[in-house]
Amino acid sequence: MVTALELSMLERKLDRDPEAARATLANAREQLALGLRELRDLARGIHPSVLTERGLDAALSALAQRAPLPVELHVAVSGRLDPTIEAAAYFLVSEALTNVAKHARADRVSVDVAVVDGTLEVTIADDGAGGADDTKGSGLRGLVDRVTAVGGRIDVTSPPGQGTRLCARLPVSVRATVHAEPASLS
Predict the structure, then answer these.
(1) Is residue 20 exposed (0-12), middle (13-18) or buried (19+ Cβ within 10 Å)?
(2) How many domains does the chain have?
(3) In whole angstroms, what is the distance from residue 177 CA to residue 145 CA?
(4) Is residue 37 part of a domain?
(5) What is the pLDDT of residues 68-115, one digit of tens each?
(6) Assigned domain for 166 exists
(7) What pTM was estimated for this model as a whole?
């Protein structure tokens, strides 16, 4: 959708402002590449392979690298978490970065992820336009639904003109390791 809009803008800019047209074309190319990568991840299954194979830190690093704006990422999570919580955190960040790119008119975004007092805290903050409302539209509502579905909660702070800050708290459960006792031969 965004790329179609950008291509329409490109048509209008082509003759009157070739420099702006080049910038619009570059952005549309990036959006197409991002969409293709997301489609490939989806085709591999719900979880991107990097999340399944290497964990949350690696998956979020990959997201940050391909984001269409600068992302400052800090992850303080040692070891693996419950796969459901890792997936919820990954998709929360992924969808939030998409929302920032589409709506916030931000120059940068920060993502902080840490386990604090048995809770995975995920904070996404941008320097954009603010004014986001989780009661309107489906973008933020989907994030709220995703977080509450795993027993977490999310706070949205978004004063107009001052950017948006999402702070999600997800329950962390220690993954149980089952040690089988050797069978008795008696």
Answers:
(1) middle
(2) 2
(3) 30
(4) yes
(5) 899 999 999 988 999 989 999 999 999 999 889 988 999 999 999 999
(6) yes
(7) 0.69
